[in-house]
């Protein structure tokens, strides 16, 4: 007997594949989603007694396609052309599951449709999680701390944009592909960042978003195995995610990289991430995600903080800064510079950056001032950082640093915060 929870798990895993196929067949995202939901309802009614079909994925796609055709036939005659198109593409009520290669092609089309530049970035993230991740509107709204109604409107507007602007359901080709792929990877990394270091709320980490981003990263790498930056992004997320359990205390407090218990780092994720980094190095087509992955691979090589090869990290940040000369990359390079040449050199590199609204700028600056014994300035910088983060765990950590500085001395060095080395 099949339990409802098992059916729900299968549908969550197959949702993106099924919707991708049905969008091509039906020409409508909303119709595809409705059809997959109809198939889910039928599975809940039948599978507990009948058992799992030989190919659950094929069953979902075939049943959803057939339910959609039936629904269109029952609706107004103005839908006749759509019905005919559906029948033409589906070989009416065929029980043959979709070819695997076709499913993969459709998933790629859907990824690039969700991340089309005509759609704003917040909507790109929401659509990707909804259509490819199978997350409900309520789950996405909860993850990004907005009302469900707000997220629902965001999704409706994004799908309306796709429909009204006639955004093509295809994978871009030629000169258009690199920039579009960059947008796709950025969306997945935004999902991961929000899970790894939540921008607001009580908890530092949202495991569901980290998991979903890694799953999407695997999907993109599998669908585009010749794209080294896709491999680099997956490596980066795995190496960061490997540290997740060590990043917080039992009561949810933030633990810096230098203070983490490295014995609880996930060795399997580290091994997989390092293998992907080595494969990227052999390709010799470096990109920003590959370089960030290499930096975190160096961190993962160090059994103890003192054995970290900061010179290699500094060199890698130099390459990354040359490739992407942004202030946030320069800030991360300054952290590495402070470990190689001392906190004064790091502070000099930080003070020329225009990042006054970025809380990590003030947090890094405060730590360097603390290490130089300039406690009053450090306290002021920590307070600046406090004012610019909405995450409770980070605010509590900064408050503890302020208390320590106002009651004792500079204390031991804490070389780096454990945030993704993003841009």
Automatic annotation (TrEMBL):
<comment type="similarity">
    <text>Belongs to the sigma-70 factor family. ECF subfamily.</text>
</comment>
<feature type="domain" description="DUF6596">
    <location>
        <begin position="180"/>
        <end position="279"/>
    </location>
</feature>
<keyword id="KW-0804">Transcription</keyword>
<keyword id="KW-0731">Sigma factor</keyword>
<dbReference type="InterPro" id="IPR046531">
    <property type="entry name" value="DUF6596"/>
</dbReference>
<dbReference type="GO" id="GO:0016987">
    <property type="term" value="F:sigma factor activity"/>
</dbReference>
<dbReference type="GO" id="GO:0003677">
    <property type="term" value="F:DNA binding"/>
</dbReference>
<dbReference type="Pfam" id="PF08281">
    <property type="entry name" value="Sigma70_r4_2"/>
</dbReference>
<dbReference type="InterPro" id="IPR013324">
    <property type="entry name" value="RNA_pol_sigma_r3/r4-like"/>
</dbReference>
<feature type="domain" description="RNA polymerase sigma factor 70 region 4 type 2">
    <location>
        <begin position="113"/>
        <end position="161"/>
    </location>
</feature>
<feature type="domain" description="RNA polymerase sigma-70 region 2">
    <location>
        <begin position="18"/>
        <end position="76"/>
    </location>
</feature>
<dbReference type="InterPro" id="IPR013249">
    <property type="entry name" value="RNA_pol_sigma70_r4_t2"/>
</dbReference>
<dbReference type="Pfam" id="PF04542">
    <property type="entry name" value="Sigma70_r2"/>
</dbReference>
<protein>
    <submittedName>
        <fullName>RNA polymerase sigma-70 factor (ECF subfamily)</fullName>
    </submittedName>
</protein>
<dbReference type="GO" id="GO:0006352">
    <property type="term" value="P:DNA-templated transcription initiation"/>
</dbReference>
<dbReference type="Pfam" id="PF20239">
    <property type="entry name" value="DUF6596"/>
</dbReference>
<keyword id="KW-0805">Transcription regulation</keyword>
<dbReference type="InterPro" id="IPR036388">
    <property type="entry name" value="WH-like_DNA-bd_sf"/>
</dbReference>
<dbReference type="InterPro" id="IPR014284">
    <property type="entry name" value="RNA_pol_sigma-70_dom"/>
</dbReference>
<dbReference type="InterPro" id="IPR007627">
    <property type="entry name" value="RNA_pol_sigma70_r2"/>
</dbReference>
<dbReference type="InterPro" id="IPR013325">
    <property type="entry name" value="RNA_pol_sigma_r2"/>
</dbReference>
């Amino acid at each position: 007997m099949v339990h409802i929870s098992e059916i729900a798990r299968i549908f969550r895993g197959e949702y993106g594949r099924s919707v991708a196929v049905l969008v091509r067949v039906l020409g409508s995202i909303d119709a595809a989603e409705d059809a997959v939901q109809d198939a889910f309802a039928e599975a809940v009614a039948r599978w507990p007694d009948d058992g799992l079909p030989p190919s659950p994925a094929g069953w979902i796609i075939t049943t959803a396609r057939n339910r959609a055709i039936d629904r269109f036939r029952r609706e107004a005659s103005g839908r006749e052309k759509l019905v005919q198109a559906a029948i033409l593409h589906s070989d009416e009520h065929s029980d043959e599951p979709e070819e695997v290669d076709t499913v993969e092609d459709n998933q790629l089309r859907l990824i690039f449709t969700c991340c089309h530049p005509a759609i704003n970035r917040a909507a790109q993230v929401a659509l990707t999680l909804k259509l490819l991740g199978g997350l409900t509107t309520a789950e996405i709204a909860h993850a990004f701390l907005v009302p469900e109604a707000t997220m629902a409107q965001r999704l409706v507007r994004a799908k309306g944009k796709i429909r009204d602007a006639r955004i093509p359901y295809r994978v871009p080709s030629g000169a258009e592909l690199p920039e579009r792929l960059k947008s796709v990877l950025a969306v997945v990394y935004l999902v991961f960042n929000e899970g790894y270091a939540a921008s607001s709320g009580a908890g530092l980490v949202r495991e569901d978003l980290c998991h979903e981003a890694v799953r999407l990263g695997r999907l993109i790498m599998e669908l585009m195995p010749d794209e080294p930056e896709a491999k680099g992004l997956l490596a980066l997320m795995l190496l960061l995610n490997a540290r997740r359990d060590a990043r917080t205390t039992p009561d949810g407090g933030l633990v810096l990289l230098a203070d983490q218990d490295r014995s609880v780092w996930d060795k399997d994720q580290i091994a997989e991430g390092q293998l992907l980094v080595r494969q990227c190095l052999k390709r010799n087509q470096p990109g920003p995600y590959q370089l960030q992955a290499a930096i975190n691979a160096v961190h993962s090589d160090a059994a103890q903080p003192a054995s970290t090869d900061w010179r290699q990290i500094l060199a890698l940040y130099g390459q990354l800064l040359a490739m992407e000369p942004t202030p946030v990359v320069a800030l991360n390079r300054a952290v590495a510079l402070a470990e190689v040449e001392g906190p004064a050199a790091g502070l000099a590199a930080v003070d020329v950056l225009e990042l006054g609204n970025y809380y990590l700028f003030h947090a890094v600056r405060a730590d360097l001032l603390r290490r130089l014994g300039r406690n009053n300035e450090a306290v002021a910088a920590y307070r600046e950082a406090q004012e610019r983060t909405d995450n409770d765990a980070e605010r509590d950590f900064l408050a503890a640093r302020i208390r320590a500085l106002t009651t004792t001395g500079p204390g031991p060095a804490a070389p780096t915060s454990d945030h993704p080395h993003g841009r």
